[in-house]
Amino acid sequence: MKNNRSNPPIVSNILETIGNTPMIELNRIADDIPGRVLAKVEYFNPGHSTKDRMAIKMIEDAESNGLLKPGGTIIECTSGNTGMGLALGAIVKGYKLICTLSDKQSKEKIDVLKALGAEIHVCPTNVSPDHPDSYYSVARKLNAEIPNSYFPNQYDNISNRIAHYESTGPEIWEQTEGKITHFIVGVGTGGTISGVGKYLKEKNPEIQIWGVDSYGSVFKKYHETGEFDASEIYSYITEGIGEDILPKNVQFDLIDKFEKVTDKDGALAARELAKKEGLLLGYSCGSAFQGLRQLKHLLPAEAVSVVLFHDHGSRYINKVYNDDWMKENGFL
Length: 332
Ligand SMILES: Cc1ncc(COP(=O)(O)O)c(C=O)c1O
What we know:
By secondary structure, the protein is α/β, with parallel strands linked by helices. The protein is built from ten helices and ten strands. It is globular and about 55 Å long.
């Protein structure tokens, strides 16, 4: 058995295992994509997603700024993965955690957050962000009502993208020995693409930064035209990517291109990654890979593409990895 991961030393708590995730060559599934395709597999983080990195950074920055005080309550609106990172931070550091989620998030994500001691408020998906019942508004309201509470607001909190600038970006640069030519990732709050993108562009401005968006989201059109077109917004199934708002963490000027992927194509690509590469990944990871596949005509033969895979497939077992669910949605 060949294992290239070094044997890590004893650490003092779970938070010290965040980061330094492996990069894995994609083989069969990337046969027809020019150059090398490498996967930065973020489910190796202890909360099984890349969002552990920014969750802890948001907590630690709030502690330093005096916004989060001992015995406080953290309140966040999350698609689940940020909540998971916050839950780990809250446990180790002794805070209470309340998460608001939209009702399209998988049941597994909700159960996992509860298992880690979080209080959960499930809110309707099909309301506008400023509606009092939206998961953004409910988080704000709870923050106003609960004394000694802190609302990190991952959408506009710049600690989010700084976490990726400080850790994920340098890891990718070092793991590819500076040979990366293209970085492709799904975009939600924008923290991952903006933090990694900024670091990589500083190292080599030629590196292409591509964002994967969903149909029903405003990002691609806004990037291409500067127009926030509300008629682009409708509900979709893919979790974690696309938005009906423009979060401060999306640095549009760092992004070279957006590509939209359908719910169906993202789901099918996730299943293909499991079967062909042994990578049991989250739904948006399928979308990220599919985005690269749709843009493969733009890749030179010597391209070194890195796709960042956000989270683990265990959170989607009753969705993307369930044949009945796939059939109900017309995907199979
Ligand atoms: C599964 C999944 N994919 C993609 C994203 C998008 O990442 P970012 O918010 O850094 O843009 C998220 C963010 O929550 C996510 O949970």
